[in-house]
Amino acid sequence: MKLELAVSCHQFQHRFCWMLSSLLQQRGEQPELIVNAAYIENTGDPTTADLLYFFESEGLTVKHTPYPDKEEFQYRGLVRNRQLAETEADWIWFGDCDMVVHPDYITQLYDALTIDYFDEQRMLHSGRFSTDKPPDATNRLVEGFTYPCVVPDAYELSNGLKKHKKSNKGAGFCQIANVKVLREKHGGLYVDPSRNPDFSWSKYSRCRSDVQFRRRLGRQAVDLPRFIHLQHIRDNEIGHHTEVQR
Question: DSSP string of 146-168?
Fold first, then answer.
């Protein structure tokens, strides 16, 4: 079985490093994992491309989905359309790059997909904890490393931060779907580009297609260890788009 994690990374290279570190630190029997990262070329410190090359040298299987500028990249549904079109995996996990993954997550997901019964027509999802908003221990911890690097015990370190359970279900940080079903039943699309709700949102994150995707497929929860979301300041909280490295 092949599982592809499809994410977008723009100015989140430091937090993405935590996610990739936690993926290196997975335990037990696992499917073949591919990390597909979309990014705008030559952005970030380090750039996303350099981060991916580093983690590839550490043993992860990675795929680059580069964009020359933000014209198409800013619409998450279009990016996920491309990642879905190009995947050769059996299952695709649309995720966010600021999530730290429990060391047993992939093993338990593999067991769920191969042993437990789930309706493959539906989108599968699991939950998260979210750390307190910066400025606080979250930023101090993340900024305490020089990147790129493998963060030691990434999940254990992030799990020690003050955090709270988030209740949003099937959100864009964890939407796991069967690729064959998406291609045979849904035209191989995350979102219909002619009716993409991302286009109607002129401020901040353009990701309304996430809601449309989970409503179209339906959703089913999987009992898996929760991610740790390394919280950050959001555009709508400061009233403008920020390009701060996170």
Answer: -SS---TTHHHHHHTS-EEEE--
Cis bond upstream, residue 193 (ω within 30):
no
**Which CATH number characterizes residue 204's domain?**
3.90.550.10
CA angle 201, 202, 205 (to 5 degrees): 70
Question: Quick check: 113 and 222 in contact, CB under 8 A?
Answer: no
How many domains does one find in the chain?
1
Instruction: State the residue range of the domain holding 7.
Output: 2-238
Give a yes or no: residue 37 inside a domain.
Answer: yes
Do residues 190 and 84 touch, judged by C-beta distance below 8 A?
yes
The 10 Å Cβ neighbour count of residue 71 is 10
Pairing of strands 219-221, 174-178: unpaired
Residue 215 lies in a domain: yes
Of residues 89, 116, 78, the one with CA closest to residue 35? 89
Is residue 243, in this structure, part of any structural domain at all?
Answer: no
* Cα 76 from Cα 83, distance rounded (Å): 11
Is this prediction's pTM over 0.85?
A: yes
Cβ atoms 157, 141 nearer than 8 A: yes
**Residue-wise pLDDT tens digits, 32-54:** 999 999 999 999 999 999 999 99
**Residue 50 in contact with residue 148, Cβ under 8 Å?**
yes
Report if residue 233 sits inside a domain. Answer: yes
Mean pLDDT across the stretch 51-75?
97
Token representation of residue 34: 């591919």
**Is 18 in contact with 154 (CB distance < 8 Å)?**
yes
